[in-house]
Amino acid sequence: MIKVIQADITTLSVDAIVNAANTTLLGGGGVDGAIHRAAGPELLAACRKIGGCPTGEARITPGFKLPAKWVIHTVGPVWHGGDRNEPTLLANCYRNSLELALKNGAKTIAFPGISTGVYGYPKDQAAKIAVIVMREYENKFDEIICCCFSGGDKALYEKVLAED
Ligand code: AR6
To answer: Domain ranges in the chain?
Structure first.
C-alpha cells in the first residue's frame, strides 16, 4: 500500500529511506544533509567507497545511526524546463530505488520528493511520476511511504493519489 505522511524522513523506522543525493554521493543540503547528519560520519565513508552515482540510478548503504536499516541514494534530474529527459530520469530514480530495495529484502520504504527542492522539479509533475512508479511496485512491499516535509506537499500527494 502507498501511504502519505508528513515527517522528517530521518526519524522513520522503516527498512529503507531514500536520499535525494547528487552524483558525487558526498552529501549536500536539504534531505541529503539531514540524512548524513542523522546517520553519522560512517555514512559519508560508505558513500566515498561507492565513488558516485549517475543521474537516475541508485546505490545502497547501511543506515548506520538512523532508525532505518538502509539508505538508498538516488540522484534526481535538475529541472531545465522538461525537455532534457527529466521525466524519464525521475521515473528511473523511483524504479531503480524500488528494485534495489527489493533486492535487499526491504518491505517498507520511504521516499522524499526527489528533485523537488534545490533541483527545481515542479512538485505536481514530480508527484505524478512518483505515484505512477509506486503503483507498479505497490504489491511487492508492505508499505511505500511518500514522506512529505510540508503540509502542502502532503496535500498534493493525497490529491494525486486520489485522482490516480
Ligand atoms: N525529510 C523529508 N523531506 C525533506 C527533508 C527531510 N528531513 N528535508 C528536505 N526535504 P532537496 P533535490 C524535502 O533539495 O531537489 C542536496 O544538496 C524537500 O522539501 O533535498 O533532489 C543534494 O546533495 C523537497 O521536497 O533535494 C543535491 O545536490 C525534497 O526533500 C540536491 O540537494 C527534496 O529536496 C538534490 O536536490
So the answer is: 2-163
